[in-house]
Amino acid sequence: MTSSPLRLILISTPIGFIGSGKGGGVELTLVAIIKGLLEMGHHIVLVAPYGSFLPSGCEGAEIITVKGIDQSSWQHQVPDAPITIPFNGMLPKLVEVALKVSKNSDAILNLCYDWLPLWLTPFVEPKIFHLISMAGVSKLMEATVRDLSKTHHSRLAFHTFSQASDYELIDQPIVLGNGFDLKNYHFQLKGQGPLGWAGRVAPEKGLEDAAKVAADLGDKLFVWGLIEDKAYASKIESLVPEGTIEWKGFLNTQEFQSQLGSCRALINTPKWNEAYGNVVAEAMACGVPVVAYRRGGPGELVQSGVTGWLVPSDDIEGLKKGVLNIDKIKRQNCRDWANESASYQMFAKRINSWIQSGLGIR
Ligand code: UDP
Q1: What is 7-180+343-358's CATH number, 3.40.50.970, 3.30.1330.60, 3.40.50.300, 3.40.50.2000?
Q2: pTM for this one?
Q3: Beta strand 221-224 pairing with 265-268
Q4: pLDDT tens digit string along 112-146?
Q5: Which CATH superfamily is domain 182-341 in?
Q6: Of 150, 78, 74, nearest to 112 (Cα)?
Q7: Residues with beta carbon inside 6 Å of ligand 1?
Q8: From the CA of 175, how far away is ligand 1's center (Å)?
Q9: Which ligand 1 atom sits closest to the C-alpha of 225?
């Protein structure tokens, strides 16, 4: 129990129900926050799309689900796209319900990366905090975050410094990392298995580069994750010899980590400024070294030469060299990093301190 338990309303992503995989890393982040804050004695109400469910360890949270049409994701729009909200849109419904139930609560913690909750923050009585889950992909979103930073900087937090650097902020960014229930990830000391790649299968994730590495090395690439863009997935498959890619599907964490843990290395190839890169942390939690571009969150999470290899962005030859040198990395280093930097307990403590200090409690 903390000295001052809070009543917090959490807003989930307006893109897919929790468990669908459509919300990407936000789904797991939300679960980590809920579990950690509950253990600290806080009272949590989650407002989430209809169909959402919370895994074990989160039973103490109340969940309110709402029906509506998914918001489209910013990363799949042109940089100067306007905000569009469909009729019966999920975004305003989540916000409306969160505001309604926020009477007698201390704060709202918003995890949906969208304009509406950011924009209305200065105009409503409930204190809304925003954990920003993406780097800058939209001019409108960048301007909205910038404007909120001018008046309510302490209400904004980010996963990594690289992500935060896309935003023009009035002060140093509040950077909180991310967290995972590490007991769900089993350390596998021996990893002689295939190369792995994980994430939403969508152009910003750069699967084609990892496929090329595997093809050039005559290796197999296991791919886990939701296929968001089928045409893109088929195109990548056609670019490499048949059988190079083995599609493993979108698995639950238990199965995902058990398969991922047998990999020799995870190749991480973001084409955008990845905000954090959950799959990078999850691979390391299983003892899998990561070969990644020095771009975005993964460039901050991986220590080159210790937990994997970082290479210049888009340097496929560099990735190959990293894979060929993977035996030089001790798998135990990877798990040690996860224990020290990516537990949900520590992440929740950082979230707690951020909100408490933003509320002027400490
Ligand atoms: N994931 C999963 N099952 C799979 C593959 C991926 O649950 O088979 C999850 C993974 O645990 C991670 C998320 O998909 O939390 C991808 O998040 P990440 O931060 O890597 O990228 P994002 O999709 O948010 O851009």
Answers
A1: 3.40.50.2000
A2: 0.96
A3: unpaired
A4: 999 999 999 999 999 999 999 999 999 999 999 99
A5: Glycogen Phosphorylase B; (3.40.50.2000)
A6: 74
A7: 24-25, 28, 198-200, 224-225, 250-251, 253, 256, 276-279, 282
A8: 20
A9: 5
